[in-house]
Amino acid sequence: MAEYKAMPLGEPPLTVDALAAEPRTLADFPTPLVTLSEKALAHNLRTMSAWCASAGVGLAPHGKTTMSMTLWQRQLDAGAWGITVATPWQATVALDWGVPRILLANELVQPAAIRALAPHAARLTVWADSIRAVELLADGLSDAGATVPLAVLVELGGAGGRTGARGVPAALEVARAIASAPALRLAGVGGYEGALAHDASTASLERVRAYLAEMVRLHRELDAQGLYPAEGEVLLTAGGSAYFDDVAAILAPLRDPEGARGRPVDVLLRSGAYITHDDGFYRGITPFSRGGSGEGLRAAIHGWATVLSRPEPELVLVDAGKRDLPYDEGLPEVQAVRSLRGGPAMPFAGAAVTGINDQHAFIRVPADAVIEVGDVVRLGLSHPCTAFDKWRALPLVDDALADDPRVIGVIETCFG
């Protein structure tokens, strides 16, 4: 299994299923290593499902975080509406994996991609933020001989943000173009508030809430102007993993999936990182930590690295680097050390990662720190979205925080 960098070395070839059926200790696996913790994964799935039910919103988790069929299925089994993807290729993966409802939260404008996805319009919803994008969609579907109208959400953006029509008047023009195209069906409003803020300051939260209020205004204008089709559900979707509480507070009152007040309307969050959470960016910004939104999420993803050198009393070099660990939203944090001489992982106070190369991390430690070559360090990670794509397979441990974590399975990923 040399093609999987996380697997035991020097052993006869094993299938992933066979390895999962034979639990081993973490010490059997080489470093650098990134693991998932079953105890924390199960907790996060339960916690987010319960929170969404309480808040009155649905969930279409963003699959780009993990690109794992196993984890996607667990999210669906926990009640997810469907899976969100970001690219046409990711949409084809979701189709191949049997995902019943797929939200492509992006503009679909490549003619070849439109033709490839046209036969699957009944399972797919896409976005558009310009009349040109609508024209490309309509022309591509017509060329492909599509027989089922494709559901399209008009995307509302914000100044300085990412994609999305700038302002309600511009979005209404896009919506009119969608509504007038026979191959398309205006299916609601989409947006992403996370592109407009990156922290939980008062100014950032006010900007997020103002943007969400504009989404509500757009939806009401679409309804008032009769742009929605006479039949069919309308979707309103926003919400990454940072501000989903504000999304629920502002959009959930519009949710009416049974159509008791008239038109059926569903409100979907697209949070994806919640399934593993982290020990960095999301730990600091999640509503569970800043807003008292019930029981919190737990970090389910960790790095493990072996001490290769201690060339100076206050400097330790370990064998995990940029090719193994995320670093775009903060460096890993040192949590504990497991001695090569045996025993449980011990908390490691006063140590900090100060830099990271391709295959090394620099850790500053107190001069009197008890750590030596061969010991293994457990690292908390920040931003799981850029951790999963570095691993074709991640060992699943029973509990990463246990004295002696046991590897009980393997989670495979698909990043192309």
Automatic annotation (TrEMBL):
<dbReference type="InterPro" id="IPR026956">
    <property type="entry name" value="D-ser_dehydrat-like_dom"/>
</dbReference>
<dbReference type="InterPro" id="IPR042208">
    <property type="entry name" value="D-ser_dehydrat-like_sf"/>
</dbReference>
<dbReference type="InterPro" id="IPR029066">
    <property type="entry name" value="PLP-binding_barrel"/>
</dbReference>
<dbReference type="InterPro" id="IPR051466">
    <property type="entry name" value="D-amino_acid_metab_enzyme"/>
</dbReference>
<dbReference type="Pfam" id="PF14031">
    <property type="entry name" value="D-ser_dehydrat"/>
</dbReference>
<feature type="domain" description="D-serine dehydratase-like">
    <location>
        <begin position="300"/>
        <end position="398"/>
    </location>
</feature>
<protein>
    <submittedName>
        <fullName>D-serine deaminase-like pyridoxal phosphate-dependent protein</fullName>
    </submittedName>
</protein>
